[in-house]
Amino acid sequence: MSSDPSRPNIILILADNLGWGELGCYGGGLLRGAATPRIDEFAQQGLLLQNFNVESDCVPTRSALMSGRHPIRTGCLQSVPAGLPQGLTRWEKLLPEILTEVGYISAHHGKWHLGDIPGRYPSDRGFDEWYGIPRTTDESQFTSALGFVPEEVEMPYIMKGRAGSPSENVCVYDLKMRREIDAILVEKSKDWLSRQAEARRPFFLYHPLVHLHFPTLPHTDFEGITGNGEFADSMAEMDFRVGQILDHLDTLEEPIRQNTIVIFASDNGPEFRPPYRGTAGPWTGTYHTAMEGSLRVPCIVRWENRVPANVVSNEIIHITDLFSTILDLAGASTLIPRDRHIDGIVQTNFLFNPLTRKSPRQGFLFYIKNELRAIKWRDWKLHFVYEPKVNQSSGHLESPYLFNTTRDPKEETDILAYNTWVLQPMLKMRAAFDVSLKEEPQKTATNGIGGIADSKSVL
Q1: Are residues 11 and 267 in contact, defined by beta-carbon separation less than 8 angstroms?
Q2: Which PANTHER family match (predicted)?
Q3: Tens digit of pLDDT for each residue in 108-139?
Q4: pTM for the predicted model, two decimal places
Q5: Whole-angstrom Cα distance, residue 423 to residue 135?
Q6: Which residues have a Cβ under 8 Å from the Cβ of 183 and sit 6 or more positions away?
Q7: Is residue 454 part of a domain?
Q8: N or C, where is the chain less crowded by C-beta within 10 Å?
Q9: Could you give the number of structural domains in the chain?
Q10: Is 337's pLDDT higher than 80?
């Protein structure tokens, strides 16, 4: 582990489908049936972002995090079933691959969802070791499903691997393991952190939790603990698991703990499938929509004596910014690829001075698959397709809807007719983005719904 502030250690914990309104520090907690004391305490120790934005689905968000690029560029447009091409090509330069070039050691414990064939597993893409699931959690229901035909599908497995060696299956990922996996992942991360204490190298730990993705089932130790059902029990467990990682970090040498950046965030907006339906708090919508409830998710950043404690900000940050900012903090900004468009903006100065500095990001374009759904600029949101609930789309709007997200957080009252001036900066953003897409065409999906075929890559 590193005690050099120019090469800080980095822990990134990513929850799965945690809505903006679930945690106590975001207005949820007990109101959602489960207190979240550990994450709430963590929020008081760092910077809580109210306007942290992601992509529409698990694969698009995770690809944006690892590449710093919108999925419309990389072709990682949506989650697809096993057996179909998916994930990031070898041509894309991933976060851990770049960190390796400046001496970092990296581990992945959790959900990957960016490639499920040799050459695309985490240990093939810059992580020194990994343990977890290559795709997604709903596959844990397969073996319990009525009429399941195992010979017709690829079985879901928990897997593990090390750089330079083939990844291998550990066990079938079924409903029993669904309840146990987050506990196992925490033990893997704790063991790895302990080993790094002796290595004296800066580290990057990526710990993508399985909670709260459906089926949202708690570990047996947490069943019934809240009295408010399995979703609330799972929230209590998730909070506890985050606390376990933070507690273990505290057991390490003081200079190392002080020199470790911890980021907690979510990959998508809340679950919409009953009985595991989540909430986005004051916002409307869930993942798979372009509503604020899909875009905005929790994100908290802590770095003792560098990022101010107990600060809340509504400045716009995007998931791609984590890519560029982490590399900047690690002293690797000169290694950010220059031969492709990187959408991530370095947010280091803002993170260090959130009370006096503005985010350098004004907004972004929001695609679902190949379709531009909305443009977000400052406090304004322009919808080209209006879909407040999944599968309830208006279709393409002849006259787009415009909302002010401060005055109308539910995005209910179109005010474009009185604010057509806003079209100028928004459509300039779109024009510039369109030019960049023509300069570097999107990777082509081989199956029409996801995956990538790219002449620049053998995988």
Answers
A1: no
A2: ARYLSULFATASE FAMILY MEMBER, ARYLSULFATASE G
A3: 999 999 999 999 999 999 999 999 999 999 99
A4: 0.95
A5: 39
A6: 219, 221, 241
A7: no
A8: C
A9: 2
A10: yes
